[in-house]
Structure formats: C-alpha cells, structure tokens
Write a structure and sequence with these properties.
This protein is of the alpha/beta class. Helix content is 60%, strand content 8%. It has eight helices and four strands, in the order αααααβαβαβαβ. The protein has helices spanning 3-34, 41-46, 51-70, 82-107, 114-144, 159-170, 189-194, 206-212; strands spanning 150-155, 176-182, 199-201, 230-231. Strands 3-2-1-4 form a four-stranded mixed β-sheet, covered by helices on one side. α1 packs antiparallel against α5 (114-144) and α4 (82-107) runs antiparallel to α5 (114-144). The protein is elongated, with a radius of gyration of 25 Å. The two termini are 14 Å apart. Mean pLDDT is 82; it is low at 44-48 and 218-232.
C-alpha cells in the first residue's frame, strides 16, 4: 500500500470512528428519551442548544480521538488475534464513556446519566467492533490477492525459524511474503536444505542484502516470531 493510500485510509478511519461515537451518543439519547429513562420528549425538545454545547461536544470529540490513539486503535493489527483487537476496542470505548462522565460533571450536563453512559458504551463498542471486523476481513482479502504486502527474511534456520515461515505461508491474509533465511554454516543446514527453503545470505552479508532490497525489506521485530527475529 502506497504511503498516500495508507494516510488516506488512516484519516478516514479516524473520522469514521468519531462519526460512530457521535451516532452512538445520538442513538443513546434517542432511546433514553423514548423509553422514559431520561428527560421527557417535550423536555428534551425544550432544551436550548447554545454555542457552549457545541464547544463542549468539540472537547469530547478531541478527547475521544486522543483516547483512541493512546489505546493503539490506529496501529497495524496484522498479527493481532480477534480477541486482542476486541479487548483494545472495549478498553478505548470504556475510557471514552468515562470521559463523558467527567465532562458531564464539569459542565453539569443533565442528559449524561449513568444509564446513558452504559447505553453509549454498548452502542459505541458494537459499532467499533463491527467496523474493525469488516476492515480486517477486507484487508485480509486484499493481501491474499498480493496487495499491501510486506517482505521478510528470517534470521536463523532452526526448527523455530522454519515453524515461523510455515506460519506466514499458512496466513496469507497477514500479507507477509518470506524472501528467505539468513544464517551461518552449522550442522543443521543439511536438514534445512531438505525442506526446500532458501538461504539468501549469511550474517556478514546481511547488510548488503538489505541495501539491495531497500524499499522492499526493512528492519522489524516480530511480536509472535517464536523467538526468531525477522525483517520486513
């Protein structure tokens, strides 16, 4: 994915998350008014909308954006499990609801009650979970067809390194393509060659290999590499 495309996607994702939070706020207000857990409908309509209300909501939007960023919602999630993504989202939406509680206390906003916060958190969480699941499936499908790829070389040729290479091949939706392995001569290389994998360099020649592949291969440490360091 080109840098411009990645930037556009990231900005769109941030704006979309704030729109979902805004819709969750509106839907929570609507449901509480209609089911009698908040102000009456006539009382809701009688509330005057002042310039200060827009300023307060602007503060809430800024706070939500900062919370989502601090909770790592906009970092790459290629190697994250669905459970890890879900926990991050629930944490972020929980903090967003807590932020509303602080704003309500500071500015004495009658609409933001405890039932409202629970409903806002639930709606916002479901919306973000659904959007991330859809995005994850979409990006995974794109990577399976050879787009938005990252290239790797694996340091080492032991069983763990080979297992990690098999894991990358088994997960094409991650978008990683292994260029080969890097290692020094050792007794296990005979068994390594029998697997059909390629040794692209030794450690002394690694810097030269990376220079030739600059733009395609860059330094990176895998978070689930089974103790085998990889470059991408």
């Amino acid at each position: 994915m080109h840098a411009l495309h990645r930037k556009i996607l990231l900005v769109s994702l941030k704006v979309g998350d704030l729109l979902l939070a805004t819709l969750a706020y509106g839907l929570a207000s609507f449901l509480l008014v209609n089911f009698g857990a908040g102000p009456t409908f006539s009382g809701f309509l009688s509330m005057r909308i002042k310039l200060g209300n827009f300023l307060v909501f602007g503060v809430a939007l800024l706070a939500w954006h900062l919370i989502y960023s601090v909770c790592h919602l906009y970092e790459s999630k290629r190697l994250y499990t669905a459970r890890e993504v879900m926990l991050e989202i629930l944490k972020a939406t929980g903090l967003a609801a807590a932020c509303l509680l602080v704003i309500a206390a500071l500015f004495k906003i009658r609409m933001i009650t405890f039932p409202f916060l629970i409903l806002f958190w639930a709606i916002n969480s479901l919306a973000l979970l659904a959007s991330r699941a859809l995005l994850r499936r979409l990006l995974g499908g794109i990577r399976k067809y050879g787009r938005n790829l990252r290239y790797t070389v694996i340091l080492g040729t032991n069983s763990r390194a080979l297992e990690f290479a098999r894991l990358l091949r088994a997960k094409p939706e991650w978008g990683y393509r292994n260029l080969g392995f890097v290692d020094e001569p050792w007794s296990g290389l005979t068994d390594f060659y029998l697997t059909g994998n390629s040794l692209v360099s030794d450690f002394d020649g690694l810097s030269g290999f990376l220079r030739v592949g600059r733009g395609q291969v860059s330094l990176w440490w895998s978070r689930i590499c089974l103790d085998a360091n990889i470059y991408h």
